[in-house]
Amino acid sequence: MLNFLQNLGHAGLKRVAAVGRSGQMLAQAVIAKPAPLEMLPLLIKQIYFVGVLSLIIIVVSGLFIGMVLGLQGYTILVDYGSEQAVGQMVALSLVRELAPVVAALLFAGRAGSALTAEIGLMKATEQLSSLEMIGVDPLRRIIAPRFWAGFICLPILATIFSLVGIWGGAIVGIDWLGIYEGSFWANMQNSVDFGEDILNGLIKAVVFGFVVTWVAVFQGYDCLPTSEGISQATTRTVVYSSLAVLGLDFVLTALMFGDF
Amino acid sequence: MRMRTVEISVGAFMLAGIIALVLLALNVSGLNLASQGDTYKVYARFENVGGLTPRSKVTMSGVQIGQVTAIHLDTEMLMAKVELDIHKDVDYLSIDSSAQILTAGLLGEQYIGITVGAEDDVLADGDVIEDTQSALVLEELVGKFLFNEVSE
To answer: Which of helix, strand or coil describes residue A260?
Structure first.
């Protein structure tokens, strides 16, 4: 019994210490020493790896999710004779909810795990400590550009995701199922509000980008420098960032659309 | 050379993000920055506006000619006062035009339909449409129907 309590307390303290370390890392890498001009080439390279290379999976899954939404919405709404509302349904569910969340989950799997593995391997092969030896701050040189890249990329990816998804919904709805094009778009434009829906979705994507990259970068930076440690850290990145995204999504939705 | 392709693709990626946001704003949310200036305001009082909301369409013969910008209660006449923004080029609405609140489809959104009258004078900025017909409220219809059934 005493042993159990001891283990519990130990695990709890370890978690709290990890949260503390991650905050410290973020503060040191991002806030304490900003060097934007020096960092720009590194940042561009990271945006290429994190953002541009994630584009294909985002576009393809956005297209299919939009098409599925269109198809599902049609089969339900056609019973009520209001299949013109498919456009509205597809647009609202994508812009408000699915685009930020699904893009963040895909981003965690595609880019977050890669970031963790890369930084973890750098740590395991002592590249980080070599950088420190030659007087280059690894937080600034390795962590900061990767963090900013993820933070910038996810909102862009989520926006592209919504656009492609709505396009997919329109293909299915208008071209295949024969919903009248005018009412499809007009219903959508009447119900989607720029500030209320699109900007709130974008705020969600910004928050998720922050959280997912933070988790990914920290797990890489903090992992045990062994091959097992890297694999555990990569798994943890995907699990923790997915959980954080889904949990935060509820909180943000309640703040934005609930009447509190 | 390698760095250049990276830079170009990153630039294209960022541009794609911005273009996607603009397209979302214009096509999906129907945000319209251009046509703010060239409209004029007309008011209409309704007994009951039903489900009419700001940004609802104002149409003539089914063609959109403007939108509802505000709805508030006229405390003197105890009716709903609806503010309509009509496109400037639609300058042939006679002063005896009538405004009806209509519903698109069975469950669709509500909008205002304007029918032009016979007078020569036209509505100008700030004028009020006198001849209005309120929204159909389903409960009232059902109530009337039941009342008729009972009285027969």
So the answer is: coil
**CA-to-CA distance for A97 and B28, rounded, in angstroms?**
15
Pairwise CB contact (< 8 Å): A190 & B28: no
Name the residue among A84, A156, A163 with its Cβ closest to that of B24.
Answer: A163
As for the ipTM of the complex, it is 0.76
Q: In the β-sheet with B128-129, what is the strand arrangement from edge to edge? A: B128-129, B39-46, B79-87, B63-74, B57-60, B110-115, B98-103, B131-133
Exposure string for A178-199, b = 16+ CB within 10 A, e = fewer:
ebeeebbbbbbbbbbbbeebbb
Residue the block writes with tokens 């995204």 = A245
Q: Would the CB atoms of B108 and A84 count as touching at under 8 Å?
A: yes
**B17 contacts A156? CB cut-off 8 A:** yes
- Whose CA is closest to A58, among A124, A111, A22? A111
Tell me how far CA of residue B31 lies from CA of A87, A204, B71, B85, in angstroms.
16, 21, 20, 15
Cα dist from A159 to B19, B25, B121, B138, whole Å: 9, 11, 49, 40
Alpha-carbon distance B38 to nearest alpha carbon in chain A (angstroms): 20
* B39-46 and B110-115 strand pairing: unpaired
Which residue is closest to B64 within chain A, CA to CA?
A186
Contact A52 B10 (CB under 8 A): yes
**Cβ contact A47–B10 (<8 Å):** yes
One digit per residue, the tens of pLDDT, for chain A of length 260 reads: 889 999 999 999 988 998 898 888 888 877 766 666 677 888 888 889 888 889 999 999 999 999 999 999 999 988 887 778 888 889 999 999 999 999 999 999 999 999 999 999 999 999 988 988 998 888 888 888 888 898 899 999 999 999 999 999 999 988 898 888 777 887 788 788 888 888 999 999 999 999 999 999 999 988 888 889 999 999 999 999 999 999 999 999 998 887 65
Interface test with B, best of A53, A151, A160, A181 (most B CBs within 10 A): A160
Mutation target among A77, A163, A164, A191 for the B interface, most CBs of B within 10 A: A163
Q: How many whole angstroms separate alpha carbon A10 and alpha carbon A147?
A: 30
Cβ distance of B28 and A91 shorter than 8 Å: yes
> Nearest chain B Cα to A196, which residue?
B29
